[in-house]
Amino acid sequence: MLIKIQDIQQVANEVMNMLHEEEIEVINDFHDAVVAKDIEKIDELFKVVLFDVEDHFQEEENMMLQNNYGYYQVHKSDHDTMREKLAKYFERWLAIKSPIELQGFLENEFKKWLILHISKWDTEAALHLGHAH
Ligand SMILES: [Fe+2]
Ligand SMILES: [Fe+2]
């Protein structure tokens, strides 16, 4: 298991907490396939990860826009950094199919990024989006 639910800070917005729980499940399944070096499963789950991450980021960005949230741009640009990284690693996966490379990315980059992003940007945004969403 790459990320435990306790690793992730709870935020003051239930939609965001739900998005994070979903994402942890998807990422942990993906990480299992990567560790098992199951090429077919990685092919399948990488697309699920891309879809899920995009859904997570877009839902947050929509909520921030609807609430005229002041730090929208800087929060979105942190999402964009991860969007670009994932796109780059997906292209590399299609070209070289290296589970080792993906394992390094998940364990050394993605996990840290997600924990930090949630404890900083999502926690801040959630305070302004409130409980009602
Ligand atoms: Fe988030
Ligand atoms: Fe976010």
From TrEMBL:
Residues 14-124 form the Hemerythrin-like domain. Keywords: Iron, Metal-binding, Oxygen transport, Transport. Pfam families: Hemerythrin. One of its GO terms (molecular function) is metal ion binding. Gene3D superfamilies: Hemerythrin-like. SUPFAM superfamilies: Hemerythrin-like. It comes from the Bacteria. The keyword Iron applies. Belongs to the hemerythrin family. This is Bacteriohemerythrin. It comes from Sulfurimonas aquatica.
